[in-house]
Amino acid sequence: MELSTRKIITLFSFSLVAFGYLSTPLSHAADAEVSKKQLEIKSNPGDKKGHGMSEVVPRELIPKAPILNTKQAMSSFKVHPDFELEPIVHEPLIFDPVVIQYDAAGRIWALEMTTFMPNTQADGEMKHESQIVVLFDTDKDGKMDKRQVVVEKILLPRALAFVQGGILWADMTKLYFTKIAEANGTFTAIRTDVVDPEYAKGGNLEHKPNGLLFNLDNWYYNAKSDKRYRPYPLDTQLPKGTHEIYRNEHWKMAIGQTEFRGQWGLTNDDYGRLYFNINWTPLRTTSFLPNVANRNPKHQFSEEVLQQAVGTTDVYPIRVTPGINRGYQQSNYNEGYKLKQHTAACGPVIYRGNQFPEQYYGIGLVQEPAANLIKATKLTEKNGVVSGKNLFKQQEIVASTDERFRPVNAYNAPDGTITIVDFYQGILQHKTFLTSYLANQIKMRDLARNKHIGRLYQLKHKNSAVPKVDYLNGLTPAQLVKYLNHENGWHRDMAQQLLVMKQDKSAVDGLKNLALTTVNPIAKIKALWTLEGLGVIDFELIKQVSVSANSKVKRSLYRLVELVPTNEKIKHWLQSQVKTANAETAPILSLALGTHQVWSAFSQLIEQFGMNDFTFAALANHEADYLASQSSQISSENKAKITAVLNYVKTSETKLELTLAERQSVERGRGLFNGEAGCFGCHGTNGEGNAMIPPLNNSEWVTESQNRLAAIMLHGFSGPIEVNGKNFSSPMTMPGLAQNSAMTNEHLADIASYIRQAWDNNAKPVTADTFKTVRENTKGQGSPYTLETIKQVK
Fold first, then answer.
1. Distance (Å, rounded) from C-alpha 44 to C-alpha 429?
2. What is the number of H-type helices and E-type strands within the chain?
3. What SS3 string covers 530-564?
4. Domain for residue 362, yes or no?
5. Residue 23, in any domain of the structure
6. By C-alpha distance, which of 177, 131, 188, 176 is closest to 155?
7. Rounded to an integer, what distance in angstroms lies between the CA atom of residue 377 and that of residue 386?
8. pTM, whole model, 2 decimals?
9. Where is the Cytochrome c domain (predicted)?
10. More confident position, 15 or 571
């Protein structure tokens, strides 16, 4: 099916804007004028709109927000002098794109979602009219010139990945497999099966799983999720802790648990470490291969290890940004009325290409559609732990004065450049959290959708040639092996995925040879994990490779040896590895020692490097065995720590006896908390929050005054707060739900009742009458509460 100008409408509900922004185009000349005028206008609240929400930005400084064609849009960009931006495809060949994937032939598969917030009421957003399209570059000039719709009439597509026989993709609720046939350059969807009916079940539109990133360890990972997926050959025994959820004629799908991570978008580096975001913290990582922190249910990893913030949160727009959901708060702006910090960070990518100069390899790029820019972070590493800082001083790698430039994802491309996905939309904030202030901004500047537009841009280094691309379609397994040593990360990743999908064992000898002979540690790691994907990893190869392995390779070797059945040779080898352990390898080595129960070496490692989160992950379900084996080798202090974990039991008081109506309210609240209200998105399904977001579990603000809890839920909260003696100071404002007509007093009472009874909490449920009274008594509250103002609520 060929389409050029057809307008296909569907819901776009990616999870990047829990407190979304709108923005305004501003020419560089106008920007200078703002700098001049803002010195003169120290404080001008403007007209009161939206129930007391002041317009902080003076209206005379807010430019118009026209729709720009591609040529006009290009003139709106300010790109760092080392780089340049070029469109590779635009409307009508693509519109409303949110996710893309390059296939082995360099064709672009794209998800188009075109009914996200067509207006402030989100009219028609649930129509099943989105689609998956393929874009072709028929004349090989680097620009896409042909479009084909492959899957149509779908709802909210949010994830896309290749798999043997077709594609995996996810919509508003489910994960699907579509079998694809190709003939004469045309694709045909043969059938579509449901793989996981609960992939994105429940949750607010802005807080649903997405991603489907094929990672180094051959599993598909997701953002906003603690689930991972992997297709296995039909005759393969699935790993412990996983189970089958679907099968077809090609493979069976395993599902397993992993660490919960991220919000919108997911990426990785050369060593399989995943990078993700929360909309106000642009880049986070765990600094280790996944599936560690979830091993021991009796020990919770610290947030500093589980979600390491990489880099800074400051941003540098090149225009005024008045259209933010909390734009009535002066603290959101710098002196030029520009956004001060991230609020819609999404779509991260670690650059692993071969077109940028070497000093840019491994930088992190994060999209900030609220401020129409892309942030670049320089990553560094010490002892295996990643950190970062702004790549450029008070300047972004890409920024635009175009109101509707909305970068939402980015990808490493076959030619070694970066491909930027521009959703090109006026409204970002979903109606669930839309403030009356922001609704007024939308109306005032005509930001509701009236055209379907979309663009993909190529970000490249200005003074470096774009490499000629070798595509991988049609290559034999033996030919694919050499691409694991390619200088472009896209080629390495695609070669691994193709080899694992094909499950052709004729590649095994070549892979083993590459693992043993290459001096490139990245290629060595790729070869080893590709062998694991083929089900033929063995200890003798691990042992041989370890002789000349650096720390990065050894970290993979230690994870791989956990997959091999225990024997005395493995135990002896692991014992020898303790002698060469360092701060980078020791945490990962401890996992292998725990898996194979090499307790004497485990004790030596603790003595040398101390106990940490990895120690308890390694001891999962073996604490008693270790204590019995090593009692005389463990210090009394460490013994007490291990004993405490061994004896850990989640305790709670006897719950209040609830009436049937109260129990029903709590259950409805559970669905709302994890669903439409989206509370779990920040506070977590376990109510524990994170390093910046305060917990709801064991919180006096939840279990004590019903009126204060109701007031906060209605009008939100901003600024520092103390919970159980611990201070929290999030840069983001908790949104109130008073202006959300879908959230009735009954709904809010259900949520409040749930959180007062959930987890370790044991407080009396709340009635709708309480919310009715508080709503009436606080109707003049035009801004979120602070610690001082909430105390006035009795």
1. 25
2. 23, 31
3. HHHHCCCCCHHHHHHHHCCCCHHHHHHHHHHHCCC
4. yes
5. no
6. 131
7. 12
8. 0.88
9. 664-759
10. 571
